[in-house]
Amino acid sequence: MIKHVIFDFGGVLLDLDMPRSMAAFRALGADMSTLQQPATQSLAEGKAGATLCDGLAACGVMDLYQTGDVTTPQLVDEILAHCRPGTTAEQVLDAWDACLLSIPEYKLDYIRDLRSRGYQVHLLSNTNEAHWMRAAESCFGGHPEEFFHSLFLSQEMHMAKPNDDIFLAVLSRLQAAPEECLFLDDTQANVDAASALGYHVYKAPVRHDFRAEVDAILADVPAGDVTSAHMTYATTAIVSTEHLACTVGSGDLPVLATPVMVAWMENAAMKCALPLLAGDESTVGSHISVSHLSPTPLGGQVMATATLVERDGRKLTFHVEAMDGKGKIGEGGHVRYIINKEKFMSRL
After folding, report:
1. pLDDT at residue 43 is higher than 50
2. Catalytic residues
3. In the chain, what are the domains?
4. Residues 6+ apart with CB under 8 A from 235
5. In the chain, what is the greatest distance between 2 CA atoms, to the nearest angstrom?
6. Per residue in 154-173, pLDDT tens?
């Protein structure tokens, strides 16, 4: 029985625009992209850096700030060293907070609804002092305790997702078993870490209305009937010569080709669907609508993610997205159908 619903903050509740902050820093003469890396890369190196959003993890001073191991003035001084002369601390903090947007009102209403239904609702966020102070005021009127029974903030706990210690600390503080907790996050590494410890998990696509899927999990709908619970798959690849637009023929520049990015998204969706299939079944793609948002150079690492957002009989609808080391490079929707292999091939 699930008693505790634990929300991530940025990406799940709070809409974020990380490129907006990066652009604001570039306008001050500082390139902050060096303080981010793909979340999968940080996991491969042992203790993971604090995950951010869009499949990225913090490194360097940003990671230390997320875990409260450097102060806001120390962070500002570090960034000022990379800015044009004359840049002020206020300008740095404004650029730092530029990524913070708002929480849709229906999500705040849903938190109130969960509380009225008897669930303990909590927040577990990789955040930092500056972001939290501004967001707590703008999103919750300075009173987040009116929405959440507990706040688990990385900068206060000196721990960060996706490392096990923060998830274990949450269980200890709540005096709860992992199977009593449902954890929502938009980052695959965080969802995987919580799931491995026994939490119920749901990977929420960014800016997605997750209410129906979460209600289905809370109602303990059998796995085959839940449209999105535990149904996310991510795959990574390195852009090589064969993946370039000038090689594939979709363009004439040495950047990741759109059809290759789309193929990686489809591959993630195909693998995401595998737990739903019988031995004589497979899936085939029938429709994909994707925006390619940003170029990726030769040698760049790309993570493609597919999340099942709806199942209607044999029709499976996915949200797909792709990230590289600088952020989101593509996203869209993809439809696949479950088919019988033998019958399908007999039509050839």
Report:
1. no
2. 258, 266, 292
3. 1-227 (3.40.50.1000), 232-345 (3.10.129.10)
4. 264, 267, 268, 271, 303, 304, 305
5. 72
6. 999 999 898 899 999 999 99
